[in-house]
Amino acid sequence: MTIGDTIRDIIADKSDYFAKFIKFGIVGFSGVAVDFSITYLLKEKANCQKYLANTVGFVVAASYNYLLNRIWTFNSHNQYVLTEYMSFMVVSMVGLSINTVTLWLLVRKDKNFYLAKLFAIAVTMAWNFTANLLFTFRG
Where is the protein found, in the record's own terms (predicted)? Predict the structure, then answer.
């Protein structure tokens, strides 16, 4: 299936893709709990640098999200799990860049770190869903 086919499918059957977006959002919301927990523990309890703590929290949450999205959101039966996971992680790493730059820009303007992090997560979610729909789970 090509990207063009996927885009045509989205236009033809919006309800299926809307349902996937809702599921992706639910998975992402649970991932936020994982992300915030890891970030908080590393930053506040282990005294890690805040951007390092943010990165580790993001990567752990992305791995957790991959598993849930593979099984529930996209119902993937791709036998090449490692390839699919790596694609998901590449999308997530681009998302991490978007997340970190957004976070940095807001914190630099004296915004609360955790409120800025929530906004950065929302921006990143839009990227992650679209890219994973078109590249990772397109089959």
Answer: Membrane
Least confidently predicted of 6-15, 30-39, 86-95, 103-112: 6-15
**The two structure tokens encoding residue 134:** 């078109």
Max Cα distance, the chain (Å): 50
Based on the structure, what is the number of domains in the chain? 1
10 backbone dihedrals φ, ψ, rounded to 5°: -60, -45
- Kindly indicate the confidence band of residue 11, based on its pLDDT and cuts at 50, 70 and 90: low
Q: Encoding tokens for residue 30? A: 């649970």
Q: Which domain holds residue 69?
A: 3-136
In sequence order, the 6+-apart residues with CB closer than 8 A to the CB of 55 are 96, 100
- Given a cut of 70, is residue 81 above it in pLDDT? yes
Q: Which amino acid is at 95?
A: G
d(CA 90, CA 39): 21
Q: Please list, residue by residue across 116-135, b when 16 or more beta carbons sit within 10 angstroms of its beta carbon and e when fewer do.
A: bbeebbeebbebbbebbbee
